[in-house]
Write a structure and sequence with these properties.
Length: about 475
């Protein structure tokens, strides 16, 4: 900053010094020229005075010669010679014309000693011419002195006006090149406080101020980077807070679902306990009825009902066991037989406009909790039946074994799952059907996870849904 202020001061001082030197030099030249002109006028005045003295002496001598008729006194001629001899000394340099006339005067004065009447008139005439010439030259010198004096006066007035004007122009130029950019810099700083990080254009900036504005642009660039980093940090913090809030809400929702599931488990345990006795009575009645029937086909149907009652009883017992955290023991099961029996039973519950198909490899035996798998597949099929509702369609139960995992798929050509259920996943009490409870697939999902597997849902193109339950198993082929 010190250098920034000293350099303009030095520049102003240099301009003033140059201007003052020019003015003083001009005054000195004019003074020397005035002295030369005055000296020339003084020499001409001295020359004119000497010629006038000589002319007066010659007139007196001529008058004396004419009146007395005697010869001219020699002292008068000597006085004229003395005056003429002083012309080169105090009258300035003598030119060729004056020199020639002085020589001619010397000859006439010599002639005047013997012939004064003839020489004196010629001498008077010659001195008169010399005097007229000197008078004319003196007037010309005075005119030139007057003209130069007028010029000096005009130059002095111009200097009196021009020097302050020059000072004003220099100050204005300094303001335009130095102080105005500094004022603009003040405006840029106020814009910077408002968050405007636009750099300053360096076009037309004085080289003296160029480093200052370059540093300003670097500062603005750095501040913009810091502001961007601060915005990114703020955005990251907001995202973290939003994520933590969402996680907290999910935890609260999970707790609420857990509370509802606990209440539902308690209700199901109570219902299981209360339903076992009526089911046992129904089973005994069907067994007695089976013994009394002679039709083999009706007996086969009653055997299926009795088997399902056995399974319902096992499920109720399983519900009671789950309340005491006793899982069903897995055993080797023929998956083909399990699915076929389940399909035979479900066909009596599926409406006629819905066709049920199975794709299960024969001879596939796996170590699984049979009742739990049967109930899970049943829930998956019933969910597809409810999705088709009154529309005709096909439900396919497909079983595959790969990568030590048993994949049980239930595929339908219904409307498919809604997008919110696909994005949010299967959750208890979340359903797209008005009459649904949202517990069917949720129970299947919990069953799969308890066995170390998983449940996935998806839609098929152009329409339809696919529910896949993947379970780990120990496979054995018959």
């Amino acid at each position: 900053m010190k250098s920034l202020l000293l350099r303009p001061t030095r520049l102003v001082a240099l301009v003033f010094a140059v201007a003052l030197t020019l003015v003083l030099g001009t005054v000195a030249v004019m003074a020397w020229m005035d002295f030369t002109r005055v000296e020339a006028v003084r020499s001409r005045v001295n020359r004119t005075h000497l010629l006038q003295q000589s002319l007066m002496i010659l007139k007196e001598a001529e008058l004396e010669v004419v009146t007395s008729g005697s010869l001219l006194k020699p002292e008068r001629l000597d006085a004229v010679r003395a005056h003429l001899a002083q012309i080169p000394l105090i009258g300035g340099p003598v030119g060729p014309v004056m020199q020639e006339r002085l020589v001619l005067m010397e000859q006439l004065l010599a002639q005047a000693k013997t012939q004064p009447r003839a020489a004196l008139p010629v001498s008077l005439e010659l001195v008169g011419k010399m005097l007229d010439r000197e008078t004319r030259i003196e007037l010309e010198l005075l005119d030139s002195v007057y003209e130069y004096a007028s010029l000096e006066r005009r130059l002095t007035l111009a200097a009196l006006v021009g020097f302050p004007t020059l000072v004003v122009l220099v100050l204005w130029a300094l303001r335009q090149r130095l102080f105005r950019p500094i004022g603009n810099l003040k405006e840029f700083l106020s814009r910077l406080s408002d968050g405007d990080f636009a750099p300053v254009s360096l076009n037309g900036i004085d080289p003296l101020l160029l480093p200052l504005f370059q540093n300003y642009n670097q500062m603005v660039d750095r501040l913009e980077q810091l502001e961007q980093a601060n915005r990114n940090r703020t955005l990251s913090l907001e995202q973290e807070v939003r994520g933590a809030t969402q996680a907290l809400l999910k935890q609260q929702q999970s707790l609420a679902r857990a509370e509802r599931l606990a209440a539902a488990g308690e209700v199901s345990a109570t219902l299981a306990h209360e339903l076992r006795n009526p089911i046992a009575g129904i089973e005994v009645t069907l067994v007695n009825l089976r013994r009394e029937l002679a039709d083999a086909s009706l007996g086969e149907r009653i055997d299926l009902v009795i088997a399902e009652l056995h399974r319902v009883t096992r499920l109720l017992n399983g519900l009671l066991q789950q309340t005491s955290h006793v899982p069903e023991a897995p055993r080797f099961v023929s998956v083909h037989r399990l699915v076929q029996e389940l399909a035979t039973l479900i066909r009596y519950q599926v409406p006629p406009h819905i066709r049920l198909e199975t794709e299960v490899p024969e001879g596939l035996r796996c170590r699984l909790p049979e009742d739990g798998v049967r109930q899970a597949v049943l829930n998956m099929v019933l969910n597809s039946v409810e999705a088709l509702h009154d529309a005709s369609g096909v439900i396919t139960i497909r079983v595959e074994s790969r990568d030590d995992m048993l994949h049980l798929q239930v595929i339908d050509d219904g409307p498919g799952f809604p997008q919110d259920l696909l994005s949010g996943g299967v959750r208890p009490f979340v359903t797209s059907r008005e009459s649904g409870t949202g517990l069917g697939l949720a129970i299947v999902k919990r069953f799969a996870r308890d066995l170390g597997g998983e449940l996935t849902i998806g839609n098929r193109s152009p329409h339809g849904a696919c529910v896949t339950m993947s379970l780990p198993h120990a496979e054995a082929h018959a």
